[in-house]
């Protein structure tokens, strides 16, 4: 495909996303009895953007409460610079991770500190190791979790805040399961990942479960669509261009037909 074709596809995609963003605003309901409510997100709508403060806090929640079980394999540390992290901050974040690399000159694999060009690693060496550490369940990679279902942001927020200490009267939980309002069937194997004051926010925000859930949802929404803001800006520019072009064409049409008559 040539460059014009690629640009045309990007423009069409941007316009479609803008139109959908304006039109989709319905309450979500998960299959199998799980239900979630609707919440306003800063990244919704044609003019929506990611809340930079929420992204920073969301990264803290991901690292403190999610990264021990879940990976983020499609996001490189340097991508964080696109949303306000400095080069020094990115290097400091990356170096805290251990990356499997190799082979070296001797043909052996080795481990090293992370670099900005590396992607967030999985906490497990392979799927079998992940299942063995989680009672047979495979923790999903969270890179595209918000895109994995319709109304993903509201669903994820509902899932993270939908745990109950006890199941409702008349509901019998299977062994090792937890009751959750949003999860399909209302029984989930994952223990509640968030607890009040589970992280110490750098900006002093109170770390309630609801706040942490909102912040990590924003962060994972960005991870699923890091190009969203660029795409929306392109869509707005195209719409403005088409409006101006339509006005010019209308003026030319009036001029031409005025001369004819």
Please tell me about this protein's structure.
This protein is mainly alpha-helical and 261 residues long. The protein has one domain (3-71, 122-260): Cytochrome c-like domain (Cytochrome Bc1 Complex, Chain D, domain 2, Orthogonal Bundle). The protein is built from seven helices and six strands, in the order H-H-E-H-E-E-E-H-H-E-E-H-H. It has helices spanning 3-23, 52-66, 87-95, 127-133, 152-161, 209-224, 228-260, and strands at residues 72-76, 98-101, 110-113, 119-120, 178-179, 187-188. A two-stranded antiparallel ribbon has the order 1-4. A two-stranded antiparallel sheet has the order 2-3. Strand 2 (98-101) and strand 3 form a beta hairpin. Helix 2 (52-66) packs across helix 6. It is globular, with a radius of gyration of 23 Å. The two termini are 46 Å apart. Residues 6-32 have low confidence and may be disordered.
Tally of distinct domains: 1
What's the number of helices? Answer: 7
The termini sit apart by: 46 Å
Please tell me the overall pLDDT.
Answer: 86
- Topology, number of strands: 6
pLDDT < 50 stretches: 6-32
Strand-residue proportion: 5-15%
Helix proportion: 40-55%
